[in-house]
Amino acid sequence: MKLRLLALGLFVLVVLDTHAQTLTTGQISGVVVDVTGAVVPKAQFTVLSKDTGVKRTTESNASGYYVVPLLDPGNYTVTVSSAGLQTVSRERVTVEVGHSVLLDFRLEVGTLVEKVTISTEPPVIEPSNPNTTTTLNATQLANTPNPGNDLSYLANLAPGALINTGTTTSQGIGKLEVNGLPTSANNFSNRRPKIIASATSMTVMPGSARITISIGMLIAGALVFNYVITVENIPKALSAALKAYELSPAVFLLAANVLLLILGCFLEGTTILLVIVPVLLPTANALGIDPVHFGVVVVVNIMIGLVTPPYGLLLFMMVKIAEVPLKDLVRDVLPFLWVMIAALALMTYVPEIVLFLPKLMGYKG
Question: pLDDT tens digits for 67-78?
C-alpha cells in the first residue's frame, strides 16, 4: 500500500512540475463592444511588441471575445479596428509570465480614418486569472536576503504572498500563503531551472549512487554463488539425480517449479538461466514437454524470484527507493506473491494458456 501511494504521489508531483515548467508566456484577452454595449464581431486586432517589433493579428469572435496567446513577456501596443467604428490603440500593455492581461475595448461610431490612442496602463488586478507573478533581475536576486537559502522564500516577494518560515512542509520549505489561501491551495513555481536542477542533483545523485552500489553488491554476491555452483559440479549432480528417477511430465514440472522458486530466493535471474536451465531442459525435452511452454514457466519462476524474500533483487531496489523497512515491504508484497504462484500453477498444468497465442500465429510445437 505504501508503494502504491508513493508511486501515485510521485506521478502527481511530476505532472504538476511539468505543468509549471510550461508557463513561460502570457496572453492578452478581452471583449470589444460599441457605444450601445453590443458586442462587435470580426473586429481586427493587431498586437505589436515594442521590444522585438514582432506583430500578431487576430479578430474577435461572434461574442466579441478575442485572445492573443503565447506572448513573450514585454511591452505591447494593441490596436483594434472595425468597419464604421473608430480605430483604438492602447500602448504600454505589459505582459508577464503566466498572466492573462484583461483588456476590453469600447469603440465609438466614426469614420474609417479616425483613430484614438489611449496611453493608460492596463488594470493591475486581473479577475480572470488567479496567478500571482513577480519578476526579479539578477541584481535583485543577489541583494535579496534569503534565510536558509530556501528557493521558495523568493515567493514572499509576490503581492499577497506570505511564507511562515517557522513552520515547514514535509519538503523542508516554508509554508506559502497567498491572499489568505492556505499552503494546500497554492502551487509554487520558481522560474530558475538551473538553480532547481542544481538543488535536485545534490539530493538525487547521492541517493542514486547508494541504490546502484547496493544492487551491484547483490549481483556480485550472486556471481560468486554462481562460481561456487559451477566449481562444485552441482548442475551435473542434479542432472544425474533427475535421470535416476523415472518422473512423469507433471511430477517433473512440479519439481522444476519448486526448485526454481527456492533458487529464486537466493540467486539472480541470469545465474538461473545460465546454470540451472541447461540442466533441466534436456530432461524436459525427453519427457515431451513443449520447449515454449517450459521456457515461459521458467521465466515466470524467475520473475517471482525477483520479489521473493530474503534476497529478491526487486525487493532491495524498492526498499532503497521507497525508504521503507524490508519487513513492511514483504508484508505488502505477499498477497501479490500468492496470486503469481497460483497463476504459475495454472500455466504449468494447462499448457494451452501459454501455447494458445503461439499456435494462433502458426506455431506447430
Answer: 998 888 889 999
Q: Are 329 and 322 in contact (CB under 8 A)?
A: yes
Going from N- to C-terminal start, the domains of the chain cover 28-118, 138-191, 209-360
Q: What is the CATH number assigned to the segment(s) 28-118?
A: 2.60.40.1120
pTM of the model: 0.39
Q: Is the Cα dihedral 19, 206, 267, 273 positive or negative?
A: positive
The answer to whether the beta carbons of residues 297 and 257 sit under 8 Å apart is yes
Q: Which residues of 278-303 are buried (b: 16+ CB within 10 A; e: fewer)?
A: ebbeebbeeeebbeebbebbbebbbe
- Please state, in angstroms and rounded to a whole number, the distance separating the CA atoms of residues 347 and 255: 15
Other C-beta atoms lying within 10 Å of the C-beta of residue 329? 21
| 95 φ, ψ (degrees, to nearest 5) | -105, 130
